[in-house]
Design a protein that fits this description.
about 325 residues, alpha+beta, Alpha-Beta Plaits, Hypothetical protein af1432, 2 domains, 4-stranded antiparallel sheet, 4 strands, about 55% helix, about 5% strand, elongated
Length: about 325
């Protein structure tokens, strides 16, 4: 901009575009996914403008277009055209959604500096971004969830079944409607952090190495960061972080014990394990329900809340194949 002003070249307006959600994508899916969004945005902008206009990246997630000719109406039309092409890109591309917040400023008087036009356009963009930020972040989160479902066969239908189970248990416990709504979110998005785990780890058929296990366990922290960035998921961010804690303190990431683990996480833990056991996998058939029940009883008091296991089984209306004493009864026998 400084060089352009010194050269005396004309600039009738400035458009500023900010790529929404770039940091969130970089933090969760990696910089390669973020770079793909930057390239898609750059390609759209380059196609839309004349060779006499200047299209430049001016920051990590920001682009500026300096227009050599045109009045205010022309510049407004150009800004609207950017939004139309972004919408078309999202309709035709199966990848992550592209979201650009766009602001513009037009020269109103002779001698108006380019840098002042840029500041005005940037301020207008920021106001628009603030207005659209919630829907943009929600769009990114929803697409991340779809990306997870597309990558991981384990999640196919899993979230819907989990939602039904955890809500039934919560209703049996008399939890409020507000907590039921949050539990539904947890059931759907508890593993959203897996979008940030490499495929070679997520899909490895053999046992994970110690290093790979540590990497896999990062999905709780990644999911927490995604949820913190979304107003829709912020209420369940803490539960997403803690959903792999075990009753006896041997879970992760914090090693919480007993009732220091949120109730919602303890409910989800039982439902998640039960669904995993009874569901078919490409490499094995699901267990009969009665065998899965035996496993829940076996790990009641270590992995699972021993008081919640019988409540879960009552709601699910399933019984063990053989007579198995619940953990609480076993403790009495000892």
């Amino acid at each position: 901009m400084i060089r352009l002003e010194k050269s005396g070249a004309g600039c009738e307006g400035v458009i500023v575009c900010d790529l929404d959600g770039l940091k969130q994508v970089n933090d969760t899916m990696g910089h390669q996914a973020g770079d793909a969004l930057l390239i898609a945005a750059a390609n759209i902008l380059q196609r839309l403008f004349r060779s006499s206009d200047i299209v430049a990246r001016v920051g990590g997630d920001e682009f500026a277009i300096l227009l050599s000719t045109g009045g205010r109406a022309d510049i407004a039309t150009a800004a609207a055209r950017i939004e139309e092409h972004v919408a078309h890109h999202n309709r035709t591309s199966p990848d992550l959604p592209l979201s650009l917040s766009v602001g513009f400023a037009a020269r109103e008087k002779l001698g108006q500096r380019i840098r002042d036009l840029f500041i005005e356009a940037d301020n207008n963009m920021s106001r628009k971004k603030l207005h659209l930020s919630q829907s943009n972040r929600s769009s990114v989160v929803q697409t991340l969830a779809k990306a997870l479902e597309a990558r991981d066969f384990i999640t196919e239908g899993h979230a819907d079944r989990l939602e039904s189970m955890v809500v039934s248990v919560a209703q049996e416990l008399g939890l409020s409607e507000h907590r039921l709504c949050d539990l539904r979110l947890l059931a759907k998005f508890h593993d959203i952090g897996k979008v940030g785990i490499k495929d070679q780890i997520l899909f490895k058929p053999a046992k994970l190495s110690e290093e790979e296990t540590a990497a896999m366990r990062q999905h709780c922290a990644i999911g927490y960061r995604i949820a913190q960035a979304s107003p829709d998921l912020m209420p369940v961010a803490d539960w997403i972080y803690k959903h792999h804690e075990w009753w006896d303190g041997t879970g992760y990431p914090l090693g919480l014990t007993g009732e220091s683990i949120p109730l919602e996480c303890r409910i989800l833990s039982i439902a998640d394990a039960f669904d995993a056991m009874v569901s078919d996998r490409p490499y094995r058939k699901g267990l009969p329900h009665e065998h899965a029940v035996e496993e829940l009883y076996r790990y009641a008091g270590s992995q699972f809340d021993p008081k919640l296991v019988p409540i879960f089984l009552k709601v699910m209306e399933v019984e063990p194949k053989s007579k198995v004493l619940p953990f609480v009864s076993l403790k009495k026998v000892d």
